[in-house]
Amino acid sequence: MPSPRPINPPYTLGVLTIASTLSYLDRQILGLLAEPLRQDLHLTDLQIGLLQGFTFAIVLATAGLPLGRLVDTGNRVWIAAVGIALWSIMTAACGFADSFGALLLCRTGVALGEAALTPAAYSLISDLFATRRRGLAISIYSTGAFIGAGLSLVLAATVLHELSSAGNIFVLLGMQHIWQMVFVFIGLPGIAVALWAASLKEPRKHSGTVPGPVPGIVEIRAYFSNNRVELASLYFCLAFAATQAYSYSAWIPTVLIRTFHMPPVAIGFSLGPLFIASSVSGLILGAVLGDSLVRRGIAAARRILMCGAALVASLFTAVVPFASTLNAALALISTATFFSTIIVANGPPALQDITPSRMRGISSAVGVLIVTLVGMGVGPTVVGFVSQNIIGDPNKIGVALSIVSTAALVVSSALALVAIFHYKLEPDNTAARAI
């Protein structure tokens, strides 16, 4: 009888990274389309913030907990594949929305599908890569988020440009606006990625050297209670860093449109590549530094890097509204993004290092819940609220974005400092297994 085909960790990581890229491409595509949507569907800044932030976050976070528990008890590969298929179909469905309510319903479906991927992916990656390489592996997966967000700008700009002369083809397809076709073009390829993900092999869940039983509710509650300061400081450090990241993804295109009068197509072709380059370089550099310092015996290295990066990034987000030229604004935005992604590079592996392997699904789900509610839920929505109800001038949306982003990063840095003094490596993660 032939032996089963061995699992290829880099291949699995590659497929999950592509899925992550697609996830954030579908999630962030609304950023570049915000102005056309506002005009065609007569939306307010607050409604746009709800579509990109709070409502999306509520669904993503609420669904994450039961899905995280399912990750610890079920087949992670199939959980991820079904989620990919769902969010892709619902992204395409956004193209047929003709009102705020219809678009909100479709975005709810996107969030429900995306809630499945990250807990499953973190659990799979942590079982396939040893602690000494886990930071780089998770950061490679995390590049998908930033590549997807950047590609959403480039691809949306490309489709907008190519379809601008398509004439009445939209009417024949039941669509009246070009942005509707963008959603369809971006959403449908995800079906193929879902089938690809479903073909992956499910690795065995590790717990030290032998498989352990699925943890019960009492054990899970005891773990979170005994490590509450350590976990909470990391969770909320990442959450406030995500506030800045989600706010930037949601509102930077609008800032450039209103402040520098850039057309959406030009923004996609200029901001997209800059965003990808600065975020991916920050992720890889942050991960390599974190892994290297951990191998040298600096146990709290990942947290130290998170603390410093958040503080430096806040300096750049604070001065973006004072940029007098477009090039200066783009340089400041890129630099802030570079440093903020160093936080992302080190946060998830720091959490995986302190989490028992049998609880990685639920631990990741709790992290996604907190990061989503605070980061995605608060960030874009509060920026819209501050712009509309406090500043009262749509043309000063950049000031609102700067206030929210800078405050969030300062809080993130302070929480990382707390985490530095509450570090304890989980014994499960000392084993050098896999690759």
Automatic annotation (TrEMBL):
<feature type="domain" description="Major facilitator superfamily (MFS) profile">
    <location>
        <begin position="12"/>
        <end position="430"/>
    </location>
</feature>
<feature type="transmembrane region" description="Helical">
    <location>
        <begin position="46"/>
        <end position="65"/>
    </location>
</feature>
<feature type="transmembrane region" description="Helical">
    <location>
        <begin position="265"/>
        <end position="288"/>
    </location>
</feature>
<feature type="transmembrane region" description="Helical">
    <location>
        <begin position="366"/>
        <end position="391"/>
    </location>
</feature>
<feature type="transmembrane region" description="Helical">
    <location>
        <begin position="300"/>
        <end position="320"/>
    </location>
</feature>
<keyword id="KW-1133">Transmembrane helix</keyword>
<keyword id="KW-0812">Transmembrane</keyword>
<feature type="transmembrane region" description="Helical">
    <location>
        <begin position="397"/>
        <end position="423"/>
    </location>
</feature>
<dbReference type="Pfam" id="PF07690">
    <property type="entry name" value="MFS_1"/>
</dbReference>
<keyword id="KW-0813">Transport</keyword>
<protein>
    <submittedName>
        <fullName>MFS family permease</fullName>
    </submittedName>
</protein>
<feature type="transmembrane region" description="Helical">
    <location>
        <begin position="77"/>
        <end position="97"/>
    </location>
</feature>
<feature type="transmembrane region" description="Helical">
    <location>
        <begin position="326"/>
        <end position="345"/>
    </location>
</feature>
<feature type="transmembrane region" description="Helical">
    <location>
        <begin position="231"/>
        <end position="253"/>
    </location>
</feature>
<dbReference type="GO" id="GO:0016020">
    <property type="term" value="C:membrane"/>
</dbReference>
<dbReference type="InterPro" id="IPR011701">
    <property type="entry name" value="MFS"/>
</dbReference>
<dbReference type="InterPro" id="IPR020846">
    <property type="entry name" value="MFS_dom"/>
</dbReference>
<dbReference type="InterPro" id="IPR044770">
    <property type="entry name" value="MFS_spinster-like"/>
</dbReference>
<keyword id="KW-0472">Membrane</keyword>
<feature type="transmembrane region" description="Helical">
    <location>
        <begin position="136"/>
        <end position="158"/>
    </location>
</feature>
<feature type="transmembrane region" description="Helical">
    <location>
        <begin position="178"/>
        <end position="198"/>
    </location>
</feature>
<dbReference type="InterPro" id="IPR036259">
    <property type="entry name" value="MFS_trans_sf"/>
</dbReference>
<dbReference type="GO" id="GO:0022857">
    <property type="term" value="F:transmembrane transporter activity"/>
</dbReference>
